[in-house]
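Supplementary Note 3. Input sequence used for the single-chain structure prediction.
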Amino acid sequence: MVLSVSFNKIQLPPNATGPEALAFELGTGRFFTGVADGRILKYQGRTAGFVNFGFAAPNRSKSVCDGSDTANPNPECGRALGGVVTQLSTAADGEPYRFCNAVDVHQPTGNVYFTDASSVYDIRQLTIAVNAQDSTGRLLKYDMKTKQVTVLFRNLSGAVGVAVDEEEKYVLVSEFIANRTLKIWLQGPQAKKFDIINRQPMPDNIKRTTIRNFWLAAATVNQPTQSIVPIGQRITAFGTVVQTVRFERWYGNKSISEVQEFGGGLYVASRLVDFVGVYRP
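The predicted structure, written as C-alpha cells, is reproduced below.
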C-alpha cells in the first residue's frame, strides 16, 4: 500500500537563506525563524508572507549583513535560531558564551534551558570544531525567578539540540559531533547523570510533541556512497524510535536542522536552503 504525502515549500524573501529553527505563535499558525544574515522573520500566512521582525545582534549593520549566507557567517550579524530575542545573559561561571545554539523554555516556570555548543569555537569555526572532535560544550539553565544562570552539564560534544520535559525531571540534549542524544537527569537519584538514548548520525534540534514524544532532526548514511539522507525521527523519552520520515526527495543530501509538529504537519528547517518545508502524511 502506498501512502500519499504532500510537501509544500514556504519560500523565504529574496536574499534570505538558512531558516535553522522555528518558533510558533500560539494558536495562529504564524511562526518566527532566524536566517543566516541575522534577521528574525515572522511568517504572517500565505497572503502576507514573511516580514522583518527584528534581529539578535545589538550592533547589526543592515548594509553589511543583509543577504549574507550560511557559508560565510558573520558574528556581528547575529544568528537567531527562532523566536523573539531578549538578551538574558552573556556568560556563566565567568566564561563568556562562544556558540549559543539550542534553547527550550519550560512553560510552567519560564525557566530557559540552552546550550553553548563549544567553549572554544564560534559559528565561523564549525568545521574546525567537528574535525577536532570538540567536547567543550555546556548545558545551562536561566532561572526566571532568580535571573541567574547555572551550568548543569559540561564536556558536551557539539550540543546543538535541547528539550526539557514537562516536569523538569530531565533534559534531552543532542551532540552533533558525537552522533548521539543524551538524557540528562535534573532530579532524583540520577541527577547530574546521563543516559545515551539515541545514536543517530548528525542529530540536531529536538522538539516536544503534544503526546510527550520528541521529533529529532538527524541523518542516516547511504552505503556505499556515504552520502547522507536527512531524516526526522519521532522518539520516546527512552529513545525508542516510533517513526522515521526520510526527506531526501526534497532536500537531497542536505542536512536538516529541525522537525517540528504543528497543525497536523511536520515543519522542516534547514540552514542550507531558502525555504521552510511542510510535510503532511
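The chain is about 5% helix and 40% strand. The longest helix spans residues 126-131.
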